[in-house]
Amino acid sequence: MSHGAFTIEQAEPRPAAVVRGHVEHDGIGAFVGASIREVMQAIGAQQVQPAGEPFAQYRLADDGTFDIAVGFPVTSPVSASDGVVPISLPAGTVARTTVTGPYTEIGAAYDALIAWIDASGYEMTGDFLERYLDGPDAPSPRTVIEVPCRRA
User: Fold this and answer.
1) Given this model, what pLDDT does residue 105 score?
2) Spatial separation of the C-alpha atoms in residues 125 and 151, rounded to whole Å
């Protein structure tokens, strides 16, 4: 696993369609895969197109599991349907890097990015976001990690 440079960038707000879940760490991969398929089916039925890569937004829950929203940015807002709900991906400052390699090794990139955020005079302010540039079957999938932050 390797990661690219760490950068501070401005994220734009975007409408999205997601499936939400409360998931154990070892269930994340299956949940993400099933949710991507579910969102694609729901937005297709509403004749809405994806407006970017699939993503997962993560928040560590108090019990050590994860609250996750998995879906796609979309060209126009969607109506809630069969577990798929509309959200808005927030605007704001994010620390970003691109990771290349197996999803099982992404934790090291998070550790390095979080350390860089702190060393650069920023603090985390929101949920982690992963954008999946390649599918899970790619030999070395690329994942963009974004962490909302602000000057400390």
Assistant:
1) 83
2) 10
